[in-house]
Design a protein that fits this description.
Blueprint: H1 6-13, E1 16-18, E2 30-32, E3 42-45, H2 58-63, E4 68-71, E5 82-84, H3 88-100, E6 107-111, H4 116-127, E7 133-135, H5 145-150, E8 159-163, H6 172-179, E9 183-186, H7 194-197, H8 200-207, E10 219-223, H9 227-231, E11 238-243, E12 250-257, E13 263-269, E14 272-278, H10 283-298, H11 303-311, E15 321-324, E16 328-332, H12 339-350, E17 356-361, H13 370-383, E18 388-392, H14 397-404, E19 411-415, H15 418-428, E20 433-438, H16 446-453
Parallel strand pairs: 2-3, 3-4, 4-5, 6-8, 6-9, 7-8, 9-10, 10-11, 11-12, 16-20, 17-18, 17-20, 18-19
Antiparallel strand pairs: 1-5, 12-13, 13-14, 15-16
Length: 463
């Protein structure tokens, strides 16, 4: 870590230090909240969680090489350098803001209702063509994940891409104050966390707080195909729109599907035209490429660097990963779901050849409109011509109803629980089907993906 002596750390968090005075001049080399991830001369933050209390692991932390521990109390028998604070979580956040301020590098903050992680991976792939770039790992995008991301900054980094996710009011400013981005990228404003935000305007109001921390010359990149973002008044900050319409400064032309292999387009900005191929399919991936290209252009990357970065993109987790098995092609997009992201996934599925099947589960945190929004997803699947709609879960009953009520209704099924769905899968999925799996994370549809991958070839279909 850069210039993080134990003395500076104590001052940054405003803690009470008990320990070796000479050790105050030693450098902290890492920060962790996991006693299984200890390294020599690290700081161990003893967080209290729902299932465990980090204070119980303080002796093990010192045995594992920790230089110091951030704690709210000193457990009996614990010896070593301990920094006492009223709240370990808040102290971590203060320390993250202090540590981030040691780096004078371009930092991009990414937020939105859908596609944050995809945009983050795409932007990092592009910027890495020119700069040593730090990026958020996985979805470490909340009040604890953002500090842990920032603590991974090292002197060799020349840029950072930080994902910022919120689910309640008054969270974004906390994250933004830690990350201190000079640029902000907005993917879209959609139907996510409506229990907390009420409506789309509430979503924009909270996510819009990211720009409050931008410097005077800070730049906002926003999807111009999203009406709320297009019309959003960002004050004195420059707003660069990206998308597929003429209103967008950075736009996609000649969009072409390459099937499972990916998607191609030309990225156009003034006199620049960059032919690109994204190794993923669907219109949503084009938006991620456009946002990354806009950021790259702003930071001076060449056309060749931008195209190479987009080509180097790889999905992470259960986000539009594609598996080809003996029975079918699987589009694993089950990490999370809301109506906006599910509609985009259905549009992508519709662009693929063969018999298209979607397995959709409950979408959580949608507030009073949850039934109508689930029904609309079923209607959307029918409108895109998906041949078979499989709904699973209590709320997903409305997906089934929406699909069945369509003028040209697809074959549709509803299963009350995952167990009944898994039992029926061998009969529902035919040889050479293309199957999309999508649901809220709490539905644990990774089990459905695993079951699909284990299906053997449908020999009856080949006779």
């Amino acid at each position: 870590m850069k210039n993080l002596s134990l003395e500076n750390l104590v001052a940054a968090v405003g803690g009470e230090y008990t320990g070796s005075l000479p050790d105050l001049q030693r450098e902290v080399r890492a920060v962790t909240t996991d006693s299984r991830d200890l390294t020599q001369d690290c700081l161990f933050a003893a967080l209290r969680g729902a299932r465990s209390d980090g204070h119980d692991f303080i002796p093990a932390a010192f045995s594992g090489g920790a230089l110091a521990v951030l704690a709210e109390r000193i457990p009996e028998g614990a010896g070593g350098n301990i920094i006492l604070v009223p709240s370990v979580e808040k102290a971590l956040q203060r320390l993250a803001a202090y540590y981030r301020a040691q780096f004078d590098i371009p930092v991009l903050g990414i937020t939105g209702s859908v596609g944050k992680t995809t945009a983050k991976e795409m932007c990092a792939a592009v910027l890495s063509q020119r700069f040593s770039t730090l990026k958020t790992q996985g979805n470490f995008n909340n009040e604890l994940g953002v500090p842990l991301t920032l603590f991974r900054l090292r002197e060799e980094h020349r840029a950072a891409v930080v994902e910022l996710g919120v689910s309640h009011f008054d969270e974004m400013r906390l994250l933004a104050d830690m990350a201190m981005p000079g640029m902000a990228l907005y993917t879209n404003i959609g139907h996510a966390h409506l229990e907390a935000f009420g409506d789309l305007h509430g979503v924009l109001r909270e996510k819009g707080r990211l720009i409050e921390v931008l410097p005077e010359d800070g730049v906002i990149f926003a999807c111009g195909d999203d009406e709320l973002l297009r019309d959003w008044d960002t004050g004195a900050h420059r707003k660069i729109l990206y998308g597929t319409t003429a209103a967008c400064e950075v736009r996609a032309e000649n969009i072409r599907s390459l099937g499972i292999a990916g998607t191609g387009c030309d990225i156009v900005c003034r006199e620049r035209r960059i032919p690109v191929t994204v190794p993923a399919f669907g219109l949503h991936i084009i938006y991620a490429a456009l946002g990354a290209a806009a950021v790259g252009m702003h930071l001076g990357l060449t056309d060749e660097e931008i195209a190479a970065g987009i080509a180097a993109y790889a999905p992470v987790g259960s986000r539009s990963r594609v598996f080809t098995t003996a029975r079918c092609t699987i589009v694993d997009d089950c990490y999370n779901a809301n109506p906006t992201s599910t509609a985009a996934a259905l549009a992508s599925l519709a662009s693929l050849p063969g018999r298209r099947v979607c397995i959709l589960g409950d979408m959580f945190e949608l507030g009073t409109e949850e039934n109508a929004l689930h029904r609309a997803v079923g209607e959307c699947a029918a409108a895109y011509g998906i041949e078979q709609v499989i709904a699973c879960g209590e709320l997903a009953r409305e997906i089934y109803a929406g699909a069945r009520a369509a003028k040209e209704a697809p074959l549709a099924w509803h299963f009350p629980n995952k167990e009944s769905l898994l039992d029926a899968l061998p009969q529902l999925i035919k040889q050479d089907d293309t199957v999309l799996i999508k649901a809220s994370h709490g539905m644990a549809f990774d089990e459905v993906v695993t079951a699909l991958r284990q299906l053997e070839a449908d020999t009856a279909a080949s006779k």
